[in-house]
Structures are given as structure tokens and as C-alpha cells.
Amino acid sequence: MNEFPMKEKEIIYFDNAATTFKPKRVIDKIVDYYKNYTANSHRGDYDISFKVDDEIDYTRTLVKKFINAKRKEEIIFTKNTTDSINTIVFGYFLYYLKEGDEVILSSSEHASNILPWMMLSVKKKIKIVFVDSVNEKLNIKDLTNKITDNTKVISLAQVTNVSGDKRDVKTICNIAHKKNILVVVDAAQSAPHMKIDVQDMDADFLAFSAHKMLGPTGVGILYGKYKLLNKMLPFTYGGGMNLNYNEKSLKLAELPYKLESGTPNIAGIIGFSEAIKFINEYKIERIEKEVKDLRNYLVNKLEKIDYIKIYNKECEGSTVIINIDGVLSGDLGLYLNTKGICVRSGKHCAKMGDNKDDTVRISLYFYNTYEEIDYLIECLKDIDSILKFAK
Ligand SMILES: Cc1ncc(COP(=O)(O)O)c(C=O)c1O
Fold first, then answer.
1. Which of 36, 109, 276, 308 lies 20 to 30 angstroms, CA to CA, from 189?
2. Distance (Å) from CA 236 to ligand 1 centroid
């Protein structure tokens, strides 16, 4: 994997659910913008500004195809998944929901898919209904049982960030739409790993981050069905999102621009096109298969160490969460750091999950290797050193 400069470092990186490494071509693309055609977007009447507009438009087209959206205007550039979900909540649901309406979330959502709804519930007096997972997995029957006449929206991660629970969002959308319930899909952990087809799953809104799929930080995607985005109001106001205004009135720009106020992360958006092209050439199905094989290999090896507790064997995401009895997850994470291994410990921004324990999360991507896993296992087998470190 010599496409990834970070792979040349003396570290083993198993924190891919937090962010991924960037291929050289993504970095080069960003540097090329800064070196050769720095200009703002939608503003200039000169060649390098036209090029910036063309490049941004190109990334939008690639994203549209990547998730099989119907129209380019359904793709809004934001800062990240968090920003996308906040825009959905405060740009659409703030106006759509009324007192007494209910929102269904799962208790293992990332904070980014819980806190905006909690803030909205304070503002609008709506009710949040949580569905718990059993053995780290969400059961669609349990979810269906929580639906009432007041349910107006279901907002779920397609794959959760701690246990890697993969949800059948197509079936969930189908059930929801029969009752006129809208569905928001948090695809932060699914877009990097599996084919997303918004038309097939029929999601109403979907959000993900470029940085978790080989792209730059500071770029997020908000997808929404055109008719819903058309009704959505901007979450932020300023330049770029208005056609004209005076002291008394404001005429918003057309989609997608009305939801993209201010100067965007131009370098990031342009760089993201190379990340999508990389994934398209490598093939998302191949990424899915390679990560699955790596995960099976890791779980098999971990199972042979009797003092390691694995919490999410049955889940299908890219994560494996573990603990060693008597060792704080933070200590195990720091111990592995002394061995040059990067993992994450704690609650992983999902404090309300049904797994209340702090855990160590090992999260994989296709550029990880079997040798790296072998080395991790070797370090984990050295229980004397771990216990000595954790004292
Ligand atoms: C499932 C899920 N949702 C949302 C987020 C938030 O992503 P970002 O920090 O890029 O906004 C994450 C990040 O880990 C995530 O895993």
C-alpha cells in the first residue's frame, strides 16, 4: 500500500473508524489547488475561479454517482457528518415537527445523532424514543413496536461506530414510509465500507464524512430528497446562499447553494474527488470483502486469548471492541501505544449505547494487513507486561 504516505510510518493504525489515512493522490490534489489555482468559488470572472467551480461541480457529480442520488442538487457540502445531521435537524425538522411528535433513535447512536435531537426536543417539546440493542444489535421488531401515531422520524446509523451493528435501512425505510415517517440515515461508518444506494434504500436524508473514507477532513455530505431539501431552510446565512436581499426581503439561491453559505472547504472538496476515484477504482465491494476477512481473522485470534472479552463478535462492521478483566481500557490503549499500535479506548462518542462499559476499539480498513494483526495479538498475549503497565 505505497499509495498511503502514513503507511510508511513506524506505527500500526487501527483507528480507522475515527478517520482514515489519505492516499498520496488526495494530498497531491489538495496541494495542486493551493499551488496552482487558488481562488474562491462562485465568485470570480476569471479562469482559475472557473476551474475551482468546475472541480467542485465534478466532486458533486462523483458523490451523486457514488450514492446513486437522482440529482446533483441533492448533494450538499457540509463540514462533516455532525454538521450534516445538525443541518437536517435544525434546517428541516425544526420547522416540520410540532409539540408531541416523536423521534425514534437507537441508544447506540453516535452523539452526533443524539444531541441535535435532544436540543430540538427541548426547543419543540417533541419526544425522543430510544430503541435498545440486544447483544449489540438492533432488532427491527423492537423498533417497529416503538412506532406510534405520533412518530414522525426515525434517525439511525446504518452501521454503528462502536459495535459495528449493521442495520437493514432499506427495510426500515419501507416500514417507516408506509406510515409517513421520514428516515435519516447516518452513513458515517457505512459509506467507507459498503455500496450506498439512496434510491434503493429510499432514505429521506443521509449524512457522511469525507475524512472517514480516504478524503480530507472538513468535508461532509448531506444528501436529501430534492423535494425535502427544497423545503429545508438554511442553518447558516451569509454569502453564497442568497440570490439577492434588501432590508426587507431575502431571496435564497437555488439548491444546492442555498444550503452552502460562505466559502466552502474548497481544497477539501476538490481533494475528495480523488478519494472517491480511488475507492471506485479499488472497488467498494473489494474493500467490504477485505475488511470482513481481516475482521474474521482478528476475531479468531482474539478468541484464543482466554482473558480477552470480545463484545461484538456477531456484528458486521469494521470494529472489534474488547476488554481485559481488571485492566482499564485507557491503560490498555496506552500500553498498545508504547508498542506503536493506535487504537481507541473509552466510550467512543456513544455514551448511551447498551454496552455501558468503556472498551478498546480496534477498527480496520482495507490497507491493514494480517501481519499487523499478528503483531497486535502478540502484544495482547504479553499479559505480564500489560498488567505491569496498568498497575
Ligand atoms: C456513526 C457516526 N456518526 C457520526 C460521526 C461524526 O462524524 P464527524 O466527526 O466526521 O462529524 C461519527 C464519527 O465517528 C460516527 O462514527
1. 308
2. 21
